[in-house]
Structures are given as C-alpha cells and as structure tokens.
Amino acid sequence: MSGIPLVVAEEVADALAEGRAVVALESNVITHGLPYPDNAATAVKVESAVRAGGAVPATIGIDSGRLLIGMGEADIERFAATPGIPKASTRDLPVVLARGGLGATTVASSLVAAELAGIPFFASAGIGGVHRGAEKTMDVSADLIQFTRSKVAVVCAGAKNILDLRLTLEYLETQGVPLVSYRSDDFPAFYCASSGLRSPHRIDDPVLLARVVDTHWATGARGSVVITTPPRPEDAVDSAVAEAAVREALAAAERDGVTGNAITRYLMRAVDEVTGGRTSQANMAVLISTAEVGGELAAAYARHRSALRQGRTHAR
Ligand code: PSU
Ligand code: MN
C-alpha cells in the first residue's frame, strides 16, 4: 500500500474490489485545458462517456495532501471554478502533496495515482509529447517518460499537432513503449484524424488488445501500452486548417516569450482564437469520444482478466 493517502470514491473502490473496469482521468484538462464553465460540463460528460463504454470513471486530483481517486460532481465543479490551481506534473507532485491545497494532475501524475490505486486503464484525449523545437529547448513532456514507469494502459486520440509528432513517435520507440492504434492505420493528432504518420501497429479486436496489454506486463516490462483511437469523422478538424493555426500560435508564443510548462495551455488557447473557437469545440468532442472508447477497452480488459481467473483463455 502506498504511503500517500488516497481518497477513493466508493463506486471506484467497489468496482476495483469486484474486478470491474475503472478508467482513470486527468484533472489538468479541467483546470488548464478549457475555460469555465465548459470545463466543468465537459468533465461531467467525459465521466458519463466512460460509463457508456461500460466502466467506472475515476477523475484524479490532489486535495490537502491526498490523492483523489474519483471525483463527484461537486469536486469537479470546485476544480473547474477555482482559479490558480497549480498544474502538477510528476516533478511537482511531491511538492504539491506535501504543501497541501489543490493540484491538477497531468497525464503523467495521473498515471502515478492510478497505479497507486490499482487502476490499470487511463484515458485522455491528448498526451503530451516532444515539443516542436525540442532539439533546442529540450522540452519533452514528462508524460512520455512516465509511460516507461507506470503499469497503466493509456487510451488517447494521439497527441496535439502543437507538438512534433514524428519525434514523439521516435521517443516512444526508443523507450520501448508499445503503441497500438485501435481500428485505424495512423497515429491520430487529437482532433485531426491523422498526423500523417503511420502507427506501428493496428489492432481491431479489443480482446487481442487486452492480451497485448497483459503480455507487455508479463514480459516483466514496467510501463504503459499507448492505445490510440481517432476522433469521430464528424468531430475532426481538417489537418491543413489546424496546421496553419498552430504555426500562427507558435509565432505568437515566440513573440510573447512563453516557454516551459505554460506553453501547452498558451498554444491551445492561441490555436482556438485563430480558428474562431472551432478547435475548442472539437477538443470537447474528442475528450468525450476518447473516454467512451477508453471505457469500452477497459471493460474488455476486465472481462479478459476475469476469464483468465476462471481458467478460460479466450474471453469473448
Ligand atoms: N495535450 C493536450 N491537451 C492538454 C494536455 C496535453 O492536447 O490539455 C495537458 C495534459 O494534462 C498533459 C499535459 O498531461 O498537458 C502535458 O503538459 P507538458 O507538455 O507540460 O508535460
Ligand atoms: Mn514541457
């Protein structure tokens, strides 16, 4: 058991005890990803989407030195409406926990919490990655490093095209992080259906995916399996439109001298301004659709595990 106090929501604790599917979710997207009140409404819809997929949602956050494993609507509203909650990635996690107060977990720090709580699945629309210009700035998201450390499967719509997606895939390959695209050939770029980069593996069968996750851990590997699912066609933004907006946003960031952990939020907002709000609409839709697929895949994984426990090797 961890030495960090965990506040596990009753519904989450029950599901874990009974071997039912749970999907962990980050809270940084609530505090830093979208403006109020869209952030609160979206977070509630994301939780419903996980349920529609067949799993129990567990939104992760930090409160008074404890890790929240599952937020109610009141917690979500508090995180969404309180200004100035710090973004707590893995480097910040011990500081924010030890000081007390609220903290919003990124993908990386949510994975730490999920593993402590025994939750094997996590979903987020967009993972962090290698930033454009990283050969000079060395700005590589701690999310990628955490994928080599936390035994949690990560379902996502790829990573945003504000990043260098080619370098992001190279990094995952170098670090031996399995990357599998569910029912698509390409690595998606968040609200763009494709990054133009082919995924190393495509798998269409959730049972085979569940076996891939188990097999990764059976080899003794620590770390994540990254599973991508593209946006629904009706939600997707045209890649050329998104790329043009990203270039404008990057120029604005350079002009304003924005660097470090503030850059992701800055670029997302700037892209949204350039596209007249089109991308934040797409952002919300992708958060929801990814969560639903995350719920479905976590449920398939839980069924697979339970079949194994009962001595059946090929669950359906
Ligand atoms: N990618 C997105 N939207 C986001 C993030 C990433 O498309 O909101 C957030 C997530 O919380 C992710 C974090 O874990 O940014 C990565 O930040 P950094 O690059 O500073 O590690
Ligand atoms: Mn960074």
Write up this protein.
- Strand 3 and strand 4 form a beta hairpin.
- This protein has a single domain, classed as Indigoidine synthase fold (3-Layer(aba) Sandwich), CATH 3.40.1790.10.
- The mean pLDDT is 96.
- Strands 1, 2, 3, 4, 5 and 6 form a 6-stranded mixed β-sheet that branches. A 5-stranded parallel β-sheet has the order 7-8-13-9-12, sandwiched between helices. A two-stranded antiparallel sheet has the order 10-11.
- It is α/β, with parallel strands linked by helices and 316 residues long.
- The chain has 13 helices and 13 strands.
- The chain binds pseudouridine-5'-monophosphate (PSU) and manganese (II) ion.
- The site of pseudouridine-5'-monophosphate has 17 residues, from helix 2, helix 6 and helix 8.
Mean pLDDT metric: 96
What fraction of the residues are assigned to beta strands by DSSP?
A: 15-25%
N-end to C-end Cα span: 33 Å
Q: What does the radius of gyration come to? A: 18 Å
Q: How large is the count of helical segments? A: 13
Percent helix, as a range, is 40-55%
Structural class: alpha/beta
- Number of extended strands: 13
Name of the CATH architecture: 3-Layer(aba) Sandwich
CATH first level: Alpha Beta
Give, in order, the helices and strands: EHEHHEEHEHEHEHHEHEEEEHEHHH
